Amino acid sequence: MSVDASLCRVTRDPIDASALLREAVSPADGAALLFWGVVRNENAGRAVAHLEYQAYAEMAEREMARIAEEARERFGTGAVSIVHRVGRLEVGEASVAIVVASPHRAEAYDASRYVIEELKRRVPVWKREGYVDGPTEWVPGFTPAVPEAAG
Amino acid sequence: MTVRSLFFAFYRDLAGADELLVQLPAQATVRDLVRELRGAAAGLAALPETPVVAVNMTYAPLSTPLADGDEVAFIPPVAGG
Predict the structure, then answer these.
(1) pLDDT tens figures, A102-117
(2) Rounded CA gap, A76 and B60, in Å?
(3) Which residues of B touch A (CB under 8 A)?
(4) Which of A31, A73, A123, B3 has the greatest number of CB atoms lying within 10 Å of its CB?
């Protein structure tokens, strides 16, 4: 496996989708799939003005790398890249990008879905919604599963 | 021993700090750290009795034994994506 097999990072900077796609694709790939998660203008019936993301960045990068590796093994894809933004994001900006490169498309779709669902369950990232009509609130999330004690 | 406790999101609001250094007796577990924090600071009394934690960046049960210099992060329900 090449050292470029997965690229996972947390960043304050806007995500460059074309650079991610370019970096992920190798000559063995026949497809690359981009999941582009963006800030929506409403949630649960309230008008959202912006989102403020916070991360336990070092662990988030490790956890994303674990998920990318699981996806590669499970579905036999090529490179899997995951980038998550932190800081203040406006409506329409990308908060997360997932690129899966693969010899064939079916595996890429399955792997991409796996990565976003696992990311939402386990990666230590939080967001606070800023509403058009009021103060900010932390968005309720998923409680990560913790392994039982050994012995 | 001394362990570094990290707080995020809602828990950071409770703690009023990003991190706290906590002194614990030898043989202490994560559960002992939780008990200590819930009793020590006013806001942290609202920390759950059984919070999700990561010890040195890996999710770990409350029975995990701690060592000097460990980093214990308190992880409220996550909401990435």
Answers:
(1) 999 999 999 999 999 9
(2) 29
(3) 6, 8-10, 12, 52-54, 57, 59-61, 63-64, 73, 75-81
(4) A123
Residue type, A62: R
What is the identity of the amino acid at B45? A
Output phi, psi for A130, to 5 deg. -105, 120
Q: What is the pTM of this model?
A: 0.94
CATH H-level superfamily of B2-74: Beta-grasp domain (3.10.20.30)
Q: Is the pLDDT of residue B40 over 90?
A: no
Q: Which residue has the tokens 């043989």?
A: B27
Structural fold of domain A6-134: Aldehyde Oxidoreductase; domain 3 (3.90.1170)
Run of H or E residues at A7:
strand A6-11
What is residue A86's predicted lDDT score, i.e. its pLDDT? Answer: 98
Q: What is the CA radius of gyration of chain B?
A: 12
Q: Which residues in chain A have Cβ-Cβ distances shorter than 8 Å to B56? A: none
Average pLDDT over residues B46-54: 96
Q: What is the pLDDT of residues A69-92, one digit of tens each?
A: 999 999 999 999 999 999 999 999
